[in-house]
Amino acid sequence: MNNIPMVDLKSQYQKIKEEVNTAFAEVLESSYFVGGPVVKRFSDNLAAYLGINHVIPCANGTDALQIALMALDLKPGDEVITTPFTFIATAEVIALLGLKPVFVDVDPCTFSLNHYQLERAITDRTRCIIPVHLFGQCCNMEAIMAIANKHDLYVIEDNAQAIGSDYTFSDGKQQKAGTMGHIGTTSFFPSKNLGCFGDGGALFTGDDALAEKIRMIANHGMKVRYYHDIVGVNSRLDALQAAVLDVKLKYLDEYGAARQKAAAFYSSHFNQVSGVTPPKIATYSTHVFHQYTLVIEEGRDRIKDGLQAAGIATGVYYPVPLHLQKAYQSYGYKEGDFPVAEDLSKKVLSLPIHTELTEVIQEHIISTLTNSK
Ligand SMILES: *Cc1c(COP(=O)(O)O)cnc(C)c1O
Hints:
- Helix content is about 35%, strand content about 15%.
- It is of the alpha/beta class.
- Pyridoxal-5'-phosphate binds near residues 132 and 160.
């Protein structure tokens, strides 16, 4: 069998080639390359899909997080609570803005911020919580929002990995991932569930005032051209990216279903394998499987090497929890502070998952993994 990559963007493109090429041609003919009608159309369509008033596009998911924090008028030294088990971008923007990242350990089943430990991390300097909807399913947003409301804190949902996922509140009401906090952010990096052909990102909010501020910050702090009311950044989505995203948005639910089907197939096999725990799906959220991540009790690295030797790509997300990263040592964390995140970093292994995976490929991955145990 050929080498098996983590994602197969080439086959996915082949299926929508005509539509994407037509959309690209439209942009090229219009020569409206930055901003303009295609970016507006995509933003409006995404807002309708998410059921939220405002979608503000930007250059990437890291910028989206940075702009979200900038919109909240925080002061240097203010504390922002997040998870140590995420991509670095989540904590990076906190540090970059002179704010203090405060970590809270994760839940061993969902790998997301453990809301039972959230309240004890809150101090009189805490201003914001950034839950990360890791690997494709929502955090327990009902619990997190209740704590945030009680302590008058902002919530920014880092939704780079769970776009399209549905959250169900205890009263039965459903909302899309990224639309429950004050601001939601996402990334359109090619390998994300809604990916473009380069870099891209967006912010979501239901708050008109925040939306206006976010738009200004993303555009050099100006509302009227060349009048800069606040310090901003330059962060834009270009029209070619918006064009492909607008095509792919139509298929997002289909793509999610394909990932769910592949995940169910994996899990039906890995449920029988001792020492291997398939991902658990929370009762309150659907899972759109940005990653399919196993917890392997023993020999994770040996198994990873075995798969690699057979030409099967795997990923370790994430090998070092953020509180133990060199660049973040000054915050004073040490080994043992967040035992669940630390344990997971030694045991997780993500397998290829994407919209084009076939059962034949999956069976090959499953048997190779089982044999390298
Ligand atoms: C990918 C990712 C980001 C950053 O997105 P970029 O577009 O790469 O800047 C932020 N947070 C999480 C959880 C991510 O997975």
